[in-house]
Specification:
Blueprint (H helix, E strand, L loop, with lengths): L3 E4 L3 E7 L2 E9 L3 H14 L5 E8 L4 E5 L9 H10 L5 E8 L6 H20 L1 E14 L1 H13 L3 E7 L3 E8 H14 L4 E14 L6
Antiparallel strand pairs: 1-7, 2-3, 3-6, 4-5, 4-6, 7-9, 7-10, 8-9
Length: 213
């Protein structure tokens, strides 16, 4: 399974340029239907805005679409789409709402404003890499929990869930190539006093820390 880049969460970012408000709304999506549903939600919320410009890319059927929504051709939807393509992001929908402030920005000004708004929205949503990973649950005694957590933190292993029952259970994910090494390390630090349950494989998010432009 091929890894891909997307965003972690739904988010919003706003800025003002010459009295026009630009509000970027970003959401992870799994299909064109989800992208269109998100677009409709934003349009309903901002029905009084002059423009609801959008762009989305989804892996399903390899779809990429954008709209200037009444802005001059090439000044709005394409700059928003370019934010996604430059960062190689997919399964993402961005809608940039503009409340016109009465001052014309010109073609270049519009393109820069829509591009900045979209980039701010992606930054707020948090870019991530979806890595196809092995998932398993580790159960240990409370006296060994600290050692297990230290190993996971040191190796930067993502903990998906922690359940504090009679014995704590941590559900973690790691790339297949690292799985056996991680299990061996956990077995060594706990003296073999742990149980491991396989939970299959799936895509897990790995945050990307570099700045999105």
């Amino acid at each position: 399974m091929q890894n891909y880049k997307t965003v972690l969460r739904e988010a919003e970012a706003e800025f003002t340029e010459k009295r026009s408000r630009f509000i970027a709304q970003v959401s992870p999506v799994q299909s064109e239907e989800e992208a269109l549903a998100f677009l409709e939600k934003v349009r309903t919320k901002h029905r009084e805005a002059r423009h609801n410009v959008y762009a989305y890319i989804v892996r399903e059927n390899n779809i990429s679409r954008f709209s200037d929504d009444g802005e001059p051709s090439g000044t709005a939807g394409l700059p928003v789409l370019n934010v996604l393509t430059r960062q190689n992001l997919t399964d993402v929908c961005i809608v940039v709402t503009r409340y016109f402030g009465g001052i014309l920005l010109g073609a270049g000004g519009l393109a820069r404003a829509y591009g900045k708004s979209a980039a701010d929205g992606v930054a707020a949503a948090g870019a991530c890499e979806m890595v196809y990973s092995e998932v398993f649950a580790v159960t240990v005694d409370y006296s060994l929990l600290g050692k297990v957590q230290h190993v996971l933190e040191e190796k930067k292993i993502q903990v998906l869930d922690t359940v504090f029952g009679a014995m704590p259970t941590l559900t973690v994910c790691t790339e297949s190539a690292e799985k056996n090494n991680l299990i061996d390390t956990l077995t060594n630090v706990t003296g073999g006093k742990l149980s491991i349950a396989e939970c299959g494989a799936r895509f897990c998010p790995k945050p990307i820390t570099e700045t999105v432009e």
